[in-house]
Amino acid sequence: MSQAPQLASVVQPLPVPWQECKTRAREVLQAEGYTGFLESGNGWIASARGTSASLNCIGRNRETVLVIVTAGGQLVKEATRLFERLRARTVPDSTAVPPGDTVPVSPELLASGCSTSPTSQTCSGWTSTAEVLGAKVGTRFNFWCPPNGSAAPVWGTQLYSNDSSVCTAAVHSGTLSLQAGGNAIIELRPGRPAYPASTRNGVSTGARGPASMSFVVIGRS
User: Fold this and answer.
1) How far is it, in rounded angstroms, from Cα 171 to Cα 176?
2) Per the domain annotation, does 3 fall within a domain?
3) 190 is a domain residue
4) Which domain does 24 fall in, by range?
5) What residues contact residue 156 under an 8 Å CB cut-off, 6+ apart?
6) Residue 138 — pLDDT band, cuts 50, 70, 90?
7) How far apart are the C-alpha atoms of 4 and 135, rounded to whole Å?
8) Is residue 4 part of a domain?
9) Cβ(20)–Cβ(90) below 8 Å
């Protein structure tokens, strides 16, 4: 059985309507030199520089969840770069970055879905789950977990339900720490009828019933 290719992903909410997210996703890919566009319903698949990228916009409640998946090339670096470009085009005008200016927050914070205002900074990296990935069992994804994170809800032990915080599951599994953060590699697994609770590495997980998909944390990069 051949091993599923390793993928890198950024999964973050954006404060824009679904259609605007989809339109700007194509604009960003074109601006970054991507060609061979295929429409995937919620977004686009294209390729450039030995890398294929899928940008999908999934409407949920009052926000749109952006899912960027890259394969080949430099994986995490490319997924993060595409997210930075798209976020710069979709943040509110009061915080938008003029062309040619330096982004006033670090790439790591941008990759975690952080937004800034004159009085606060909000990061969503540690709340990201595998729920919206919609990929096949055996597919691997790489999630960026910024340093000094805060634990978010997790269900299961070693095998986690797909609505669990990926970064917090990585801490529970002993792969990352809240303080250091890092890139957690997960692999999708079939759903299970039950997920047991436990406390490991300072993180307590909950118990729950069946889920449609699961994941395991297989390492870091």
Assistant:
1) 5
2) no
3) yes
4) 9-123
5) 164, 169, 192, 195, 196, 197, 205, 208, 214
6) confident
7) 11
8) no
9) yes
Q: What is the pTM of this model?
A: 0.55
Return the residue matching tokens 């809800």.
153
Tally of structural domains, the chain: 2
Token pair for 209: 């019933």
Query: Does residue 2 fall inside a structural domain?
Result: no
3-state secondary structure of 145: strand
User: Of 123, 151, 168, which closes a domain?
Assistant: 123
Bridge partners, residue 125, by sequence: none
Where a domain ends, among 81, 107, 123? 123
φ and ψ of 27, to 5 deg: -60, -45
Q: Are 76 and 8 in contact (CB under 8 A)?
A: yes
Q: What is the pLDDT of residues 174-215, one digit of tens each?
A: 999 999 988 888 888 999 999 999 999 999 999 999 999 999
